[in-house]
Design goal:
By secondary structure, the protein is mainly beta. It is built from seven helices and 25 strands. It has two domains: about 160 residues, no CATH class; about 130 residues, Immunoglobulin-like.
């Protein structure tokens, strides 16, 4: 597996799926764009190096061993996609805050608290069909704080099921500055400014307060040079991808999970699933008497008993090969968490296989371009409450 630190040479803009372009419109930016943005930028740079045109119309019809074709991906796959920062030679991932963690402010102090799955009283009803509901027990309601990431030390504590000290939180403001910009629409026919087509947008400017802020892309299946120029995000802004050495993302000991016979499944990139919020491998038609949903994928088997999910999102993007928007798909946000009760006798290697292949079944693995783009990547965490 290879890893690249993507560093912007200009401000960036990642539009997401919001409509933009009409007079008076306002273009908000994502902090972390969809993994398909990173995959597309790296893939396009490799196309240039191979002197391949991006569309069948331009002559690309024979499958390339690494890139495949526009319809069927080759070996190249995005395995991980996170913000990252670097100080000197030390590079650190920044992970999405899992949905079972809540950041609260008490005066000037931040606290990180954990949701726990509990069984509801029989006379209480909830919208979830699962037997347990993830709740935060508190004496009084305090509005949660948003816009935080976990550093790798905080992530290691999380996967071990330990409390998260607030010094391991990293805020959006520590990583990026938002610049408000005004633009003028163009009349393509006259090749001049169009009358009345003013718009504004957010530009994302990485901070340089003693660290370089960028993104970490982990890939496999393709050979890249040590340094590569990219066009990244809206307007194809300039960026540099530098090969770096990183340790694998920390995972818990599979023997501990098997001994406890339960674990948490955490989504580290957005998920695209056939059954909505239920991950690939879940069978909504097979349930226990208490409502738990059967889960079986790549040798890991058990029952989904609870979930913590942020609000759903819609993923789209631009299809360079066909020069049109990609089909919009509902997605489960990164950071989503499912609690699993595990069957006995699961081979330890099943956990590593699920992390390596992500939440894709065998029929999707070789043919779905979204898999190669880095969706449905997961990590495990201990469930030891």
């Amino acid at each position: 597996m290879s890893a690249f630190f993507l560093r912007a040479l200009d401000v960036l803009h990642f539009r997401g799926n919001q409509s933009f372009g009409d007079p008076g419109s306002y273009g908000q930016t994502q902090r972390l764009p969809w993994p398909s943005v990173a995959s597309g930028a790296l893939r396009s740079a490799l196309l240039v190096r191979k002197d391949l045109k991006p569309t069948p119309r331009d002559g690309w019809t024979e499958p390339d061993p690494e890139l495949g074709t526009p319809d069927r991906p080759g070996r190249f796959t995005l395995r991980g996609w996170t913000p990252a920062w670097r100080k000197g030679t030390h590079l650190e991932r920044l992970l999405p805050l899992p949905a079972d963690l809540v950041v609260q402010r008490h005066g000037q102090e931040l606290l990180v608290r954990k949701l726990r799955p509990v069984s509801l009283h029989p006379k209480l009803a909830a919208s979830t069909p699962l037997p347990h509901v993830a709740v935060l027990a508190e004496a009084r309601r305090i509005k949660p704080e948003g816009g935080y990431w976990l550093d790798e030390t905080g992530w290691a504590a999380y996967v071990r099921g330990e409390p998260i000290p607030p010094q391991h939180l990293v805020s959006d403001e520590a990583l990026w500055r938002l610049d408000e910009r005004v633009g003028i629409g163009l009349d393509e026919r006259r090749r001049a400014a169009a009358d009345g087509k003013l718009f504004s947008l957010q530009a994302l400017a990485p901070r340089h307060d003693g660290r370089e802020v960028g993104y970490l892309a982990e890939t496999e299946g393709a050979a890249f040079p040590e340094r590569l120029s990219l066009r990244l995000g809206g307007d194809g802004r300039a960026a540099i991808a530098e090969a770096v050495s990183v340790d694998p993302l920390q995972q818990p000991d599979p023997h501990q999970m098997q001994q406890a016979r339960r674990c948490r499944l955490v989504l580290t990139t957005p998920g695209l699933f056939p059954h909505g919020w239920l991950p690939t491998g879940a069978d909504p038609a097979e349930r226990r008497n208490d409502g738990a949903v059967r889960f079986a994928l790549h040798g890991l088997q058990g029952w989904i008993v609870a979930a913590a999910l942020p609000r759903g999102q819609v993923v789209s993007g631009w299809d360079l090969a066909r020069w049109r928007p990609k089909t919009a798909l509902r997605s489960v946000p990164m950071g989503s968490v499912w609690w699993l009760e595990l069957d006995e006798g699961i081979p330890p290697e099943s956990y590593a296989k699920l992390v390596a292949q992500g939440l894709w079944d065998e029929t999707q693995y070789d043919g779905d371009p979204r898999r190669a783009e880095g969706y449905n990547r997961i990590a495990f965490a201990l469930w030891n409450d």
